[in-house]
Each structure stands twice: as C-alpha cells, then as structure tokens.
Amino acid sequence: MKKEWIIVMVMxxxxxLVSCKKVNVPEKVKASFEQKFKNAGEVExxxxxxxxxxxxxEMDEKEMSATFDGNGSWLETETEIESSEVPQAxxxxxxxxxxxxxxxxxxxxxxxxxxxxEAEMKGENGEKIxxxxxxxxxxxxxxxxx
Length: 146
Prior knowledge:
By secondary structure, this protein is of the alpha+beta class. 26% of the residues lie in helices and 45% in strands. It has two domains: 1-75, Roll (Nuclear Transport Factor 2, Chain: A), CATH 3.10.450; 82-146, Nuclear Transport Factor 2, Chain: A.
C-alpha cells in the first residue's frame, strides 16, 4: 500500500510541475494579441523558433492560433473552419486536383498579405496530405503528412 501511495504522489507532483510550466511572453506580444483578439478565451502560449510566439485560443466557438514576432507584429492566424465556409472555387479545385482523396478538415490561414485555404486530405491508399489554395482555387502548396 505504501508503494502505491508513493507512485500516486510522484504522479501528482509530476502533473503539477508540467501544468505550472510558464512561458514568459514579451509584453509587446501580449499587447498586440489582446488588441487583435479582444474576445479570445483559454489562451495558451508557446515559444517557437526564431523569436516567434504562438497563442492557441478559442474565439467565436472556433479553435484558432495566432503567431507574432518578438516585437509584437502579427504574422498569421489559423482558424479551423467548416467546409460551408470555403469558397466553392476552392472546394472544386481540391476535389478536381485530388481525385480519390477525401477532405478531412479545412483551415483558414490569414497573413498580412494573403488568405489561404488549407485542406487536410486522405487518399484511398491511406496517404495523408495538406494542400493550400488561394481564394480563387489556385494551388499554392502540397505536403505529405506523416
């Protein structure tokens, strides 16, 4: 019984330490985020490479993430969206260019100079890919998902 109690205590302590991990987000980044996403809830920050900061959050009942540089400049926002929110030209391009693939989910990627629609797709052979299109359905990028 004593052994089980020790295991439980070690697990609780480990969980407590993991959940207390605090990321020191620069004030400029926090201020920019709060100005751009006033209604964001449940914000979790993560530091990426090259002094970039990503906030994952919920807003308007959608899962989102936003990336900022160390000076607080907004770089991009990614939002999970429903297929009904994707322009028909984009849906048509995805299904025409990738026959035999089913669209699993859509994401809207907004950058200061462009808007991208990204589809996660799965082929009949099990291959998973991400493909990106502009609002007119022009293909921009394709990558395999491992």
